[in-house]
Specification:
Blueprint (H helix, E strand, L loop, with lengths): L2 H19 L17 H5 L6 H19 L4 H21 L1 H4 L10 H24 L5 H30 L1
Helix pairs in contact: 1-3, 3-4, 4-6, 6-7
Length: 168
């Protein structure tokens, strides 16, 4: 089996298990709920099949939904950011994305931070809107998105940096 395939399978399983066992139990001040499982979508290889990414994103989200009893909110959020990912990559990395020369782990810190931030905040905004499903709760949705998103971005950047240092 290809090394990339094995690595993605292990990343998928690891992130789902860590999300379920550890991060689903964190609810700090009612606003901070980290969701680092989106790291799978963030780190999915750029040149790989986009339909496969959408299918795996759905599988990732529905796996989290089954353990959270959340009725498809995570699946919808994951599929949405997986769908938006090519446009976000193209806007941040430009020509490097066109030539499939982008590796998120090896990208400049600013690009990596911007890419991760956009995907995480998009995921969280949709997730918390679907959780509330009420426009009158917009302040609560934005607060929860801001605090959980910031914590998740910080966690993702730390994890990306740790794993990239290990490989060098």
């Amino acid at each position: 089996m290809n090394n990339s395939v094995t690595q993605n399978i292990l990343r998928f399983v690891f992130l789902v298990l860590v999300q379920i066992a550890i991060f689903n139990n964190i609810n700090f001040l009612g606003y901070i709920n980290p969701y680092p499982y989106v790291l799978f979508i963030i780190l999915f290889p750029i040149g790989d099949n986009k339909a496969l990414l959408l299918a795996l994103s759905f599988l990732l989200g529905i796996s989290i939904d089954m353990f959270c009893n959340s009725g498809g909110m995570h699946a919808a959020s994951c599929v949405t950011i997986a769908y938006l990912r090519p446009w976000i990559l193209q806007s941040i990395f430009g020509l490097a994305y066109e030539y499939n020369a982008v590796k998120v782990v090896k990208a400049a810190f600013g690009q990596r931070l911007l890419y991760t931030t956009i995907l995480v905040f998009s995921h969280h905004l949709l997730l918390f809107f679907l959780e509330s499903f009420n426009f009158s709760d917009i302040i609560y949705i934005l607060k929860k998105t801001l605090f959980s998103g910031a914590f998740t971005v910080l966690l993702c950047i730390i994890l990306i940096t740790l794993f990239s240092v290990k490989r060098r």
